[in-house]
């Protein structure tokens, strides 16, 4: 009884066509297609691809929800032991599709997943959520990628513990695992230093957590004359969430007018954020977006004025890239409105 | 000012230093107290993660801050906040520690604190014993 | 400064009436060694009893709790003696000739405090994690006099171990070594003249210096009290730096580690070929924040003054030393001196937590000794040297760590030297 696998590939690897056929919707095929053969060969009968799902990269990008729903439906019916996608090498939309379709299968159906792509492929952003094997940047790397993926896939199907990322070939996913190197640490350190001194490439054994340090601006000279704007990632929106900001993985932000609003109330505002217990924020939204306090400061003359608009999104699981995009946009609006400083509340 | 939940520190150092003894606070709660004070501008004098005995092994913690608030330091705020994060990554241990072991943990915390302050730990202990 | 090490390979240890090393076997009369150890007043006052035992690689033996591991050496030519400022007088060491009884160690065991730790398994999966499972260990198990204070007792056990190593080392004085190796670093001017085209490299050696069971001594001086300074690498080979530290077992540097510092050894291996090994910079890891600033400012200042091109920085311990490590790294890099850091990790039992307590983007070249929180099951051993009483309470252990069948479920934190931060082992993580 061999393990059963469902494989996801794109229109190119299914030999349907290139870019001109990237719009094809998902179709279900029996058995293996294209690179699936390489996996089957590597598994030598211990596992086999029972079904292949083919989907155009453009179709996935433009109809992500529908594509995912269809894949889920088919995979749910097939009940495989593993779901494998790609490898996508450096094809950006293909990599994005592979990583995302793996994530939804893993999260919704609890089936082990695996994909593979080049480190710089945008799909690799999900490497901490989904297991991704690192491949070269072109399909010429299939010779190496397929057996590496097959081996790792077999471990997943057997429920075996995974070794360290550099041993098994997957992208470091933030889970540290011990293993024994051939050389002792001091020798590795000396070699690393020599490479660093000679400006040759080297790989650190522990990548520091990624930083996004922003140097603080100069202090506001006179607060009593300044226009202060409120912004939040805590999801405070007008009651009813008219712009439908998502409770998680927000895809946009809202711009809301608070001219004449002395304080937020539970009748007029609410929180859209799905990452914290909403009771207290709904009871009194000022707790997350302190309009009431800012109005007091306005009256007391401590600040010049509270800006008429506030900008809100939901920070729960929102991609760093999205957050940057939103802020870049509304920062311009704030600048144009001569706002001097922003209080950004987060949760 | 020494913020501590370690009774040995209270016994040996009260009178010599300003000691705020929180008998019932956990290690993490002492760190949170220190953090709140640092956020209010108190200077942090010692690193909150003193010692290699892990936060989930010893119940005792002593941290030294200034008695009065000075200027807020973002670096120090980062250190104390980071220390609480470090605490949280260790899984809680379910152990009943004997009195002897608790005394040993108290001693380690006390000597690390003494070392930091340049206080003669042994002398402090002798004084404490003599007082009794 | 130039030192020649003469290695005498020890292949077996046996108790006997005589004390000698012959044909690779150490014959030792336990009582004679004990007499020598107890000649010290502090040992006499604090140590009620001590007995010796032998543990050999491959045996089903567990040594616990471990205080220190020390290699027997003896100065046969040149100024000073082993463990200057502690056993020998304070004369500067690191030159002349020293004999080393290689392949064995003195291990001090027995509790200092109730939660103390350190396990050395001579066989089984635990043996893979400690370098000491590969050595012939002459274990000295000590017991305290009732009522003696822990810090006095720690000092006494420390001295007892060093005295044992001194006595045994002496037995190698008149023998012809099986192998000799020479180590030489040059003065500033000489180095530049002799090796003009090689990068100038130093080893920034961070020493644990926080308090009881967390101390290191340099020529007998508590490292807590030193200002960052220079030391010749060969001085460490004569025991200039010794350990008073035993928490946590996995990343504390035993005296054996200091005597056999692998960064020193591997830098020497490249010295004159791909780099100019200038010196060691020693610095401490005090708890007082101002001390951290002073020490890291000073260490990086020295790196700049010496016109170094690069340094390897190793740390010792967890938590606040990470802050020193990052400070040393940042300030040194900002002086234009490139750094490589050697550390270990506490990433939680699931490997998902932030490995270090501090971080900085300038720390872009790091070597790791592994995640100390990883859990291991140590099978029961036929013989225990020391006591298992504290296994439940040691770092990395938990209630029920010691199971009824004698096996131990604990983090590799408990194994002496497991995630060593001076790069002694091959263990790593990704």
Gist?
Chain B has one domain. Helices cover 49% and strands 13% of the residues of chain B.
Sheet-strand content of chain B, in percent, reads 5-15%
Radius of gyration of chain C: 21 Å
N- and C-termini, Cα separation of chain B: 24 Å
Number of domains of chain B: 1
| Contiguous runs where pLDDT drops below 50 for at least 5 residues of chain C | none
In terms of quaternary structure, the protein is heterotrimer
Order of helices and strands of chain B: EHEHEEHHH
Helix content of chain B: 40-55%
- Summarize model confidence as the mean pLDDT of chain B: 90
Strand order of the largest sheet of chain C: 17-19-14-20-21-22
Number of domains of chain C: 1
Unreliable residue runs of chain B:
none
> What form of chain B results from the Cα inertia axes?
globular
Largest sheet descriptor of chain C: 6 strands, mixed
Mean pLDDT of chain C: 93
- DSSP summary: helix tally of chain B: 5
Approximate strand percentage of chain C: 25-35%
* Percentage of residues assigned to helices of chain C: 10-25%
The number of helical segments of chain C is 9
Structure description:
The complex is a heterotrimer of chains A (347), B (132) and C (430). Chain A has helices spanning 36-43, 57-62, 64-78, 92-109, 142-158, 165-168, 185-197, 279-283, 291-300, 320-336, and strands at 3-10, 27-30, 47-55, 82-85, 113-118, 132-135, 178-180, 227-232, 236-238, 254-257, 269-271, 305-306, 309-312, 341-345. By secondary structure, chain A is of the alpha/beta class. Chain A has a six-stranded mixed β-sheet with strand order 2-3-1-4-5-6, with helices on both faces. In chain A, strands 8, 10, 12, 13 and 14 form a five-stranded mixed β-sheet that branches. In chain A, β4 (82-85), α4 (92-109) and β5 (113-118) form a beta-alpha-beta unit. The longest helix of chain A is centred in the first third of the chain and has 18 residues, at 92-109. Chain B has 132 residues and is of the alpha+beta class. Chain B has one domain. Chain B has a four-stranded mixed β-sheet with strand order 2-1-4-3, sandwiched between helices. In chain B, α1 links the parallel β1 (2-4) and β2. Chain C has one domain (2-414). In chain C, α9 (320-334) links the parallel β20 (310-314) and β21 (338-345). In chain C, α1 crosses α3 and α8 runs parallel beside α9. Chain C is globular, with a radius of gyration of 21 Å. Chain C starts with a strand and ends with a strand. Classes of the chains: A alpha/beta (347), B alpha+beta (132), C alpha/beta (430). Chains in contact: A-C, B-C.
């Amino acid at each position: 009884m061999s393990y059963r696998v469902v494989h996801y590939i794109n229109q190119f690897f299914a030999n349907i066509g290139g870019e001109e056929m990237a719009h094809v919707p998902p179709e279900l095929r029996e058995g293996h297609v294209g690179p699936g053969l390489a996996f089957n060969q590597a598994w030598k009968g211990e596992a086999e691809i029972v079904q292949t799902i083919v989907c155009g990269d453009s179709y996935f990008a433009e109809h992500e929800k529908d594509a995912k729903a269809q894949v889920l439906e088919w995979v749910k019916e097939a009940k495989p032991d593993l779901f494998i996608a790609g490898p996508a090498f450096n094809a950006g939309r293909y990599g994005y599709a592979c990583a995302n379709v793996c994530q939804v299968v893993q999260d919704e159906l609890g089936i082990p997943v695996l994909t593979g792509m080049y480190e710089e492929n945008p799909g690799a952003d999900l490497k901490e959520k989904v297991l991704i094997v690192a491949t070269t940047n072109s399909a010429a790397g299939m010779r190496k990628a397929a057996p590496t993926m097959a081996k790792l896939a077999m471990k997943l199907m057997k429920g075996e513990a995974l070794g360290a990322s550099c041993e098994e070939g997957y992208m470091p996913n933030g889970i540290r695992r011990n293993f024994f190197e051939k050389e002792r640490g001091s020798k590795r350190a000396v070699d690393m230093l020599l490479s660093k001194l000679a400006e040759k490439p080297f790989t650190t054994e522990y990548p520091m957590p990624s930083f996004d340090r922003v140097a603080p601006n100069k202090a506001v000279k006179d607060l009593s004359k300044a226009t202060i704007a409120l912004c939040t990632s805590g999801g405070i929106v007008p009651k009813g969430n008219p712009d439908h900001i998502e409770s998680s993985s927000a895809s946009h932000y809202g711009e809301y007018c608070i001219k004449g609003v002395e304080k937020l109330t539970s009748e007029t505002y609410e929180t859209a954020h799905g990452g914290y217990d909403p009771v207290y924020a709904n009871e009194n939204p000022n707790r997350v977006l302190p309009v009431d306090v800012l109005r007091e400061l306005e009256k007391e003359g401590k600040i010049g004025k509270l800006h008429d608009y506030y900008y809100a999104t939901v920070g729960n699981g929102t991609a760093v890239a999205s957050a940057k995009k939103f802020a870049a946009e509304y920062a311009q609006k704030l600048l144009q409105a001569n706002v001097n400083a922003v209080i950004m509340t987060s949760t | 000012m020494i913020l501590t939940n370690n009774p040995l520190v209270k016994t040996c150092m009260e009178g010599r230093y300003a000691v705020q003894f929180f008998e019932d606070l956990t290690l993490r709660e002492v760190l949170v107290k220190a953090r709140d004070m640092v956020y209010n501008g108190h200077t942090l004098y010692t690193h909150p993660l003193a010692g290699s005995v892990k936060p989930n092994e010893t119940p005792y913690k002593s941290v030294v801050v200034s008695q009065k608030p000075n200027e807020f330091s973002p670096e120090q705020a980062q250190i104390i906040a980071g220390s609480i994060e470090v605490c949280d990554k260790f899984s809680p241990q379910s152990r009943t520690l004997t009195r002897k072991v608790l005394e040993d943990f108290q001693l380690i915390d006390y000597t690390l604190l003494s070392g930091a302050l340049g206080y003669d730990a042994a002398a402090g202990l002798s004084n404490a014993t003599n007082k009794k | 400064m130039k030192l020649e090490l003469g290695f005498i390979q020890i292949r077996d240890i046996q108790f006997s009436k005589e004390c000698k090393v012959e044909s690779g076997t150490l014959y030792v009369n336990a009582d004679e060694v004990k007499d020598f150890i107890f000649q010290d007043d502090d040992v006499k006052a604090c140590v009620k009893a001590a007995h010796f035992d032998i543990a050999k690689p491959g045996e089903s033996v567990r040594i616990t709790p471990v205080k220190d591991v020390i290699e027997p050496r003896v100065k046969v030519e040149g100024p000073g003696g082993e463990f200057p400022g502690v056993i020998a007088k304070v004369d500067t060491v690191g030159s002349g000739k020293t004999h080393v009884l290689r392949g064995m160690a003195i291990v001090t065991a027995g509790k200092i405090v109730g939660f103390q730790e350190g396990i050395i398994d001579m066989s089984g999966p635990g043996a893979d994690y400690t370098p000491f499972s590969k050595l012939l260990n002459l274990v000295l198990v000590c017991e305290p006099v009732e009522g003696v204070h822990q810090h006095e007792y720690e000092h006494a056990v420390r001295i007892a171990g060093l005295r044992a190593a001194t006595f045994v080392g002496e037995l190698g004085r008149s023998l012809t070594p099986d192998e000799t190796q020479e180590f030489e670093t040059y003065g500033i001017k000489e180095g530049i003249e002799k090796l003009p085209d090689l990068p100038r490299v130093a080893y920034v050696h961070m020493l644990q210096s926080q308090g009881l069971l967390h101390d290191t001594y340099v020529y007998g001086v508590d490292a807590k009290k030193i200002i960052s300074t220079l030391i010749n690498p060969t001085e460490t080979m004569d025991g200039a730096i010794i350990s008073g530290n035993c928490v946590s077992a996995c990343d504390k540097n035993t005296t054996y580690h200091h005597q056999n510092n692998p960064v020193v050894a591997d830098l020497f291996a490249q010295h004159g070929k791909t780099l100019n090994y200038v010196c060691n910079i020693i610095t401490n890891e005090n708890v007082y924040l101002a001390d951290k600033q002073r020490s890291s400012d000073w260490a990086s200042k020295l790196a700049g003054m010496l016109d170094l091109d690069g340094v390897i920085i190793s740390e010792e311990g967890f938590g606040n030393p990470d802050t020193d490590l990052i400070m040393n790294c940042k300030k040194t890099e900002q002086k234009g001196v490139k750094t490589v850091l050697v550390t270990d990790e506490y990433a939680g039992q699931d490997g998902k937590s932030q490995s270090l307590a501090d971080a900085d983007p300038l720390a872009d070249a790091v070597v790791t000794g592994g995640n100390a929180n990883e859990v291991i099951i140590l099978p029961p051993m036929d013989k225990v040297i020391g006591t298992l009483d504290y296994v439940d309470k040691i770092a990395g252990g938990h209630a029920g760590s010691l199971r009824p069948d004698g096996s131990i479920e604990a983090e590799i934190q408990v194994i002496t030297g497991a995630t060593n931060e001076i790069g002694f082992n091959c263990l790593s993580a990704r």
